[in-house]
Amino acid sequence: MPPSSPLEQPAAGAEAPGQGYPGERWAGPWSGGEWRHRHGSRGGPLHRRLRGPIRRSPDTRVLAGVCGGLSLATGIDVTIVRIGFVLLTLGSGIGIPVYALAWLLIPLQGETTTIFTRSLNDRRGLRLVIALIPILVAAQLVADALHIGFLTKFTWPVFLALGVAILIRRNASEGERLWINDDLLPMLHPGGDHHRRWTLLLRVALGVIIGVGGLLVLILGHSSGSGLRPVGGALLVIAAIVVVFGPWWLTLLRDLMSERQARALAEERAQMAAHVHDSVLQTLALIQRSADDPRHVVQLARAQERELRSWLFEGRPPGAIGQAASTVSEGVAMIQRQIEADHGVTVQVVVVGDCPLDEGLRALLEASREATVNSAKWSGASQVSLYAEVERECVMVFVRDRGQGFDPEAVPHDRQGIAQSIRGRMARFGGSVVIRSAPGDGAEVELSMPRRERVR
Amino acid sequence: MTAAHRPRIFLVDDHAMFRSGVRAELGEAVEVIGEADEVEAAIELINERVPDVVLLDVHLPGGGGQAVLRGVTPHHPEVQFLALSVSDAPEDVIAVIRSGARGYVTKTISGDELLHAVYRVGAGDAVFSPRLAGFVLDAFAGTGAGTPPSLDPELDQLSPREREVLRLIARGYTYKEVARDLTISAKTVESHVSSVLRKLQLSTRHELTKWATDRRLV
């Protein structure tokens, strides 16, 4: 059906001829039909239905509803249209790009814009498509050089379809994207339950056909003696292998990726738990201990609130050594100030050497603070020693108290302090933790973190 | 000096509050034979009364603790000095030690510990607080590859063992705990510390003085 401009239409929409126009223009080349569809009253209902605008039909779609739409627009049975497309594809491969272009240029029923018009604003998508051109040229040149020109017959349609597929994938409307993601793509994957056997059969059949074809080319090419023809055969055999095993490789790759994601998620969770422990749980413990001092309780609650807010809304993790300190000695001094203020114990600080903080060293300081807080809270000692030494390869921190001590083996697992805030934190950045303590003999936590950037 | 013999103490500090505090804390265990609140008076009185141990404030009007040391040590080398301060300024502490003080403690030290330190300094031992140990480690750091060879490596470098001892002290270990941790005798720990003190006082290492100037700029 030829595109028709709304201007050519009889002024049937005399009520509001101009109203439909600007919007219609965006609907693409077939948009005139839509206009007539709404306003025209020349034909009877059947006529309008048959010769109406081409819209891709979501109800009868197998892929994008192009055949269904054509059948609705022309009155030809949808099965015949489909057979036509299959023949076109098998004959010269032209069926694929024609279908893809139709997908691109015909709007879905109920939509006013085509994927193509939306693509015009998708610069990245367009750039990707343009990037295909040199690859296509290269493929043509290689095929020519190898005298396997018969392959080039397929490269054009394949690349055209690829380019269109990129645009469709990026610019399909929300509803269509859902359909593509949930119903169309799973057919390509071996996972979809009831498609599974069919796709497997199809794949193996296709693989066998291509593979046999490739072998034939190899053998015939060999006997005919034309030097480079076997290369084409080999390519076909490789393609057959990819067709048969490709999806399986993809599954493997996907599993690997989802596993990695799961691990990243678990790590994130651990980091979060460590932060919550440092801030909320520690504060709650402090509040319980100073329950008889309302002013102190209010002060603690306020500080905690401020900290949580800055974490939730400004993304600054609580207890982070943050931007306030930029070197090890500044960080240690900060810990000393905070803990002396919060817990009323003396923190005796000794720092040897100094260096700028990186991610790992911040984690080291955060773990050191946790260790110091633990000593201040649980040991009963009035003084905690905090010693930091910057060495060539690593930074070491020792936190020591002469309090009641504990049995490191006997700490219950639900006590987050040591597990998450100290060990987890250090392990995430490649550091190590040694805890020495015995009941009645004080405790010492030794933390070591390798330096990323080595000075001198 | 034995426990029976009460050490005779002289206090040099410009804060009267601190002097009376120390008097009260040390109590009957020592005999305080005098006080001074500035350099001139301190030199005069110490040379006159010759105490066993002088508790010397690092920061003192009229030249600081080092000035007192320079005024006394040539005449009475037997007088021992224990430096005290509240501040964190390492260059002043190192300067006082290099001028001859036998030890350094912070003013936050408890009465018992202070008394212990007084006894030890009186007996000619060196008293290293964790902070001093840290300062010294810092001052002697960088004696590896890349530093120019020194004229007297014996004096200009800490031995690995001395380094170990200092690190433990800096971590808050007492001499006794250091000895237990390294499975050596307390006497050996003492001798390591004294040796470090000697190196600190006698070394002409360029870095030691340079380190102090660097620190002053910070």
Task: Jot down its keywords.
heterodimer; A: 456 residues; alpha+beta; Heat Shock Protein 90; five-stranded mixed β-sheet; 5 strands; disordered N terminus; B: alpha/beta; Arc Repressor Mutant, subunit A; 2 domains; 6 strands
- The radius of gyration computed from the alpha-carbon positions of chain B, rounded to a whole number of angstroms, is 17 Å
Q: What is the top-level CATH class of the largest domain in chain B?
A: Alpha Beta
Strand order of the largest sheet of chain B: 2-1-3-4-5-6
Helical fraction of chain B equals 40-55%
| CATH topological fold name of the largest domain in chain B | Rossmann fold
Protein chains sharing the most extensive interface: A-B, 15 and 16 residues
Largest sheet of chain B: 6 strands, parallel
CATH topology heading of one domain in chain A: Heat Shock Protein 90
Number of DSSP helical runs of chain B: 11
Structural class of chain B: alpha/beta
State the shape of chain B. globular
SSE topology sketch:
The complex is a heterodimer of chains A (456) and B (218).
Chain A: H1 17-26, H2 31-39, H3 45-51, H4 66-74, H5 78-92, H6 95-105, H7 115-119, H8 123-145, H9 149-171, H10 174-188, H11 196-224, H12 229-289, H13 294-314, H14 328-343, E1 346-352, H15 359-379, E2 383-390, E3 394-401, H16 416-428, E4 432-437, E5 443-450
Chain B: E1 8-12, H1 16-26, E2 31-36, H2 39-49, E3 53-57, H3 64-72, E4 80-85, H4 90-98, E5 103-106, H5 111-122, E6 127-128, H6 130-140, H7 153-156, H8 160-170, H9 175-182, H10 186-202, H11 206-217
Helix pairs in contact in B: 2-3, 4-11, 6-8, 8-10, 9-10
Description:
The complex is a heterodimer of chains A (456) and B (218). Chain A is an alpha+beta fold. Chain A is 63% helix and 8% strand. Chain A has helices spanning 17-26, 31-39, 45-51, 66-74, 78-92, 95-105, 115-119, 123-145, 149-171, 174-188, 196-224, 229-289, 294-314, 328-343, 359-379, 416-428, and strands spanning 346-352, 383-390, 394-401, 432-437, 443-450. In chain A, strands 1-2-3-5-4 form a 5-stranded mixed β-sheet, with helices on one face. In chain A, helix 8 runs antiparallel to helix 9, helix 11 (196-224) runs antiparallel to helix 12 (229-289) and helix 12 (229-289) packs antiparallel against helix 13 (294-314). With 218 residues, chain B is α/β, with parallel strands linked by helices. Chain B has 2 domains: 1-125, Rossmann fold (3-Layer(aba) Sandwich), CATH 3.40.50; 128-218, Orthogonal Bundle (Arc Repressor Mutant, subunit A). Helices cover 53% and strands 13% of the residues of chain B. Chain B has 11 helices and 6 strands. Chain B has helices spanning 16-26, 39-49, 64-72, 90-98, 111-122, 130-140, 153-156, 160-170, 175-182, 186-202, 206-217; strands at 8-12, 31-36, 53-57, 80-85, 103-106, 127-128. In chain B, helix 2 (39-49) packs parallel to helix 3, helix 6 packs antiparallel against helix 8 and helix 9 packs across helix 10 (186-202). The termini of chain B are far apart. The chains are: A alpha+beta (456), B alpha/beta (218). The A-B interface holds A 346, 348, 350-353, 385, 387, 389, 392, 398, 400, 402, 444, 456 and B 106, 108, 130-131, 133-134, 137-138, 141, 144, 146, 167, 170-173.
